[in-house]
User: Fold these one by one.
Assistant:
Number 1:
Amino acid sequence: MRRTVIAGNWKMNMTPAETKAFIEELAPMVKGMDKCDIVLCVPAIDVPAAVEAAKGTNIKIGAENVHFKESGAYTGEISAKMLVAAGVEYVVVGHSERRQYFGETDQTVNLRTLAAVNAGLTAIVCVGETLEQRELGYTETLLKYQTKMALTGISKEQLKNIVVAYEPVWAIGTGVTATADQADEGNGYVRAAIAEVYGKDVAETVTVQYGGSMNDGNAAELLSKVNVDGGLIGGASLKTDKFTAIVKAAN
Ligand code: PEP
């Protein structure tokens, strides 16, 4: 009923030439693995090379951020309309690194989500607690708050263009993975928040990914959980063999 989405988040890695070579190597490896959507979210500079290399394959291309205005005096920013015109289908919104290093707030995450979805992109909206917040017992409250804030103004109909990624901040890029039960629980809080706003039946249709040191060794167990509908993968998405193994686990 829910689409599984395996998405790589390359962060600030790869040149356009490396992007082309990576996708040309990956495409035959994941050919026919169609039980999930396969997405690579790449740096903006790599988008044209990625879109070109992914043509005719089952790999979709995403961006790592989007601005909330359509155009104007926002030096260095890229609009949703520009991404769509370049062939992008997905965009990561509100990644914890953007929240931590670039002043992203729940309000701007919401604005970016609205801009993305209104332009026809699928937004991969990231939520997640820090270790301190977890230890203080705020995980459920925080995940529900972040989820509801990010989706403010998104209609029931538009939810089909929303993927939420539960990414505990303490598990991103650290090699520390949430246990499968912690991932299932966090994803469950996200789904419960969606149910509180849109109803249970609708919430059951929304793809909720887990992200945080997912790799070829732990993907199968994480993905076996009822609330885990895919993964947002950083480090392991930079190696074709590791990423393929995760896609395989999802299939
Ligand atoms: C991410 O960047 O969203 C992520 C989950 O990174 P990593 O897989 O490296 O922890």
Number 2:
Amino acid sequence: MKITNDIRYIGVNDHELDLFEGQYIVPNGMAYNSYVIVDEKVAVMDTVDANFADAWLDNLRAVLGDKQPDYLIVSHMEPDHSANIARFAELYPAAVIVSSAVAFRMMSNYFGTDFAARRLVVGEGDALSLGTHELAFYTAPMVHWPEVIVTYDRTDKVLFSADAFGKFGALDVEEDWACEARRYYIGIVGKFGAQTQALLKKAAVLDIQTICPLHGPVLTENLEYYIRLYDLWSSYQPETEGVMIAYTSVYGNTKKAALQLAAALRAKGCPKVAVNDLARGDMAEAVEDAFRYSKLVLATTTYNGDVFPFMREFLHHLTERNFQNRTVAFIENGSWTPTAAKVMKGMLEGCKNLTYAQTDVKILAALNADSAAQLDALAEELCAD
Ligand code: FEO
């Protein structure tokens, strides 16, 4: 695949993976992107996952022909991109490895060598000329590991953005970008909003016409759309006016309340309502939705004097990703002493700028006239502002 006259795609699609990073389902697979810039000097941009070494090297050879690579630029040391550095270095002994100082320390840990005799350490604003192509490096710590650098090709106006602007999904499957890019960003980079904002500020002064991420499609058109979403996500602002109801239910009574609230919200004209069963749905999708919508309703059972385990896990995912700037409401169920709302509120204590709904819904085992009226009042309140 040709990105520009001199830049080629040499990445691979993975349809065998069960869980990306050991936890995220990837129904449409995963792409590990890698690129080559062919100039007087040839630069390879990152490697791919260990399971695809041969396919990647075949792609590389197909582009190189008789040429030899002069540089391997390593933007990120997570093994989905770095696994083949040592193999590349062995195959191409004259090539120089280019990366950040922190990345070379990680190479020692992964490969037992930091390539001291054949490395180029680069940092903020450093440049490298390939002949026609002038490359500039920028640090992007914690987007999403500390060693990350991004590379800007001044000649073709291409940003090699590392994990930023990546998504789940292989490139041979057509799907909406935002859905899987959001789940990827919130799940994987979500904790590091401030650092992503710092990267966006650096990118804002560059004339970027193409973004080449390490996952997902190369972005060539309407870049403002992608940058605007990244800005919203990394500044923890809601993307969609609407309500996300996250629930757990043991015998169906809490579920009934969650669905009844959703129906009431829809009946009152609430613009968007999403409902997630935390025990049965994809937890990463639920976490994504919590960050997407402006309002969150937490409905759960009291369990061992605490909250139901899936709700505890869900709230932990939110707090570790700096959940903030949202309206939150509680529906608690308890057959004898409901404590779930108090526990959930306690778990959210450290979150910035949360507004709690005035209406709490308390269910004693099953919905009755009182709790149904509370549900209706909550729907009214959530629709009002
Ligand atoms: Fe795609 Fe953070 O590795």
